[in-house]
Specification:
This protein is α/β, with parallel strands linked by helices. About 40% of the residues lie in helices and about 10% in strands. Among the domains are: about 5-20 and about 35-155 and about 330-395, Periplasmic binding protein-like II (D-Maltodextrin-Binding Protein, domain 2); about 160-210 and about 260-330, Periplasmic binding protein-like II (D-Maltodextrin-Binding Protein, domain 2, 3-Layer(aba) Sandwich). It is built from 19 helices and 17 strands. The two termini are about 35 Å apart.
């Protein structure tokens, strides 16, 4: 089997580390000459895989060599069925372990192509305690009640808030499990007077720019609304529930409490200026919504521009649907690792899966602050005592809107977003009333859905077709 040069380099490093760690070997002992087992891992990029997972695993397990099967060769082309192309790629490459999206995981589990892990978890004494709440249940829900994959890390967003600004303006502090209405009301309690460069904003939304459709979509996803009934092929954006959501978003956009502009990144810029482009870091926004990487930027700003950077801050959970306050679509478990049911290296594959979901892996990777966080949550903390539980206390849920993606024509959602942003811009500017904009969007989107070619169905197997 051909092996990539990069893999050999990482293996050499891993074996060196393992030898250094093997201090218990006596001077008369002879290292094993057995060839390492090779497992093939399907991932989007070899270098990223080893940076994220492979290096640490290889350092502790020199008996297992990893060959990365790079999926970048499966490229998008107009009209190309990407799901079908990916399945063909898997059939050709035959990886032992695959990193899958939620839709891919569901489909492959339904087709019997993944190794069931429930019994293995029990047999191997896999530690379920300490995993983020709801993770295993979420994965089982995706795959018909049984477990076929594990997730080593997750992405989450939270509401950051500036304690000093809340105290100065006598506004009650945010709390976990607020609704969107409560959050936006808090933002509106801050003054809206003063020039753009010198005033305070109640909230900085989606740093990099925000429009009416984007804000309404965030609220609607939280409430588990859908824009299309995929079974009936009926657009549902003009429902009473969506009208209320868009009305809430429009009022918030018009209130003047939200900072919605894109940062000005034109021309050369000092690092200090880059940090202070973020109004929350600069102490000009009382709240913002971001992932954990913002913590690192705040810390850097406090060191580089001490007199201008935010000083006292904390976090709470993202807004929730009051009707279902314990779950959140803002907890993302996209990188699902599963073992092929056809793998000839099941033991080595399980060794990899169990390591990247272990306490040791979480302990080592918990300080990265690169966006993802380990699912073993006990190591998510800092010396300042910030409320890290806000990242993982809500259970993950797949919104109805996301479940529709695989059932509709490939380009429909992209076209819908373009139409929605155009119509909501007309509503924001006063060219149309909100009702008119939603009516027109409903009509245009329904026409686009009706005109789109049907999604190609998978080819039947010879047995199914009677061949």
């Amino acid at each position: 089997m051909a092996r990539k040069r990069g893999t050999s380099r990482f293996l050499a490093i891993a074996m060196t580390a393992a030898l250094l760690a093997g201090c218990s070997m006596k001077s008369g002992d002879t290292p094993s000459q057995a060839e390492p087992v090779v497992i093939k891992v399907m991932y989007y990029d070899e270098r990223s895989f080893f940076d994220q997972y492979g290096m640490l695993f290889s350092a502790l397990h020199p008996d297992v060599e990893i060959e990365v099967v790079n999926t970048q060769s499966v490229k998008y082309e107009p009209g190309k069925d990407m799901d079908k192309a990916m399945m063909e790629f898997i059939e050709q490459q035959k990886p032992d372990i695959m990193m899958l999206s939620a839709d891919q995981y569901t489909k492959m589990a339904e087709d019997g192509k993944l190794l069931e892990l429930d019994s293995r978890i029990e047999e191997k004494g896999f530690k379920k305690e300490g995993l983020m709440p709801g993770m295993l249940d979420y994965l089982k829900d995706l795959s018909g009640g049984k477990l076929y994959g594990l997730v080593p890390d997750f992405y989450g967003r939270v509401v950051y808030y500036n304690k000093d600004l809340f105290e100065k303006h006598h506004v009650d502090l945010p709390k976990d499990k607020m609704s969107w209405d409560e959050l936006l009301r808090l933002a509106a309690m801050f003054p809206t007077d003063g020039s753009k460069d010198n005033r305070v904003y109640g909230m900085s939304m989606n740093y990099g720019g925000l429009d009416l459709y984007q804000l309404a979509n965030m609220i609607g996803v939280t409430q588990n609304l859908n824009i299309v009934d995929a079974t009936a092929k009926q657009v549902t954006i003009n429902s009473d529930a969506w009208k209320k959501v868009f009305g809430t978003a429009l009022n918030a956009m018009k209130s003047g409490a939200l900072y919605t502009e894109s940062p000005n990144m034109n021309g050369p810029m000092q690092y200090e200026d880059y940090l202070l482009q973020n109004p929350f870091i600069a102490g000009k926004a009382a709240m913002t919504i971001e992932g954990n990487y913002l913590m690192g930027e705040i810390k850097q700003a406090q060191e580089v521009v001490k007199d201008k950077a935010i000083k006292n801050w904390d976090i709470v959970t993202m807004p929730v649907d009051p009707a279902n306050p314990d779950v959140s679509p803002n907890v993302s478990l996209n990188n699902i690792f599963a073992v092929s049911a056809q793998s000839g290296q099941i033991e080595a594959s399980w060794k990899f899966l169990s390591y990247i979901t272990s306490d040791e892996f979480a302990r080592v990777t918990s300080k990265r602050q690169t966006g993802s966080m380990p699912v073993r949550t006990q190591y998510l903390k800092d010396d300042a005592g910030h409320h890290f539980e806000a990242f993982y206390s809500l259970k993950p849920v797949q919104p109805a809107m996301y479940k529709s993606y695989s059932k509709l024509p490939d380009d429909f959602f992209m076209k819908f977003q373009e139409m929605a942003q155009q119509e909501m811009q007309a509503a924001s500017s006063g060219q149309k009333s909100l009702d008119e904009a939603l009516n027109d969007l409903q009509t245009k989107a329904q026409e686009a859905l009706a005109a789109a070619p049907p999604k190609e169905s998978p080819s039947p197997s010879p047995a199914a077709s009677g061949g």
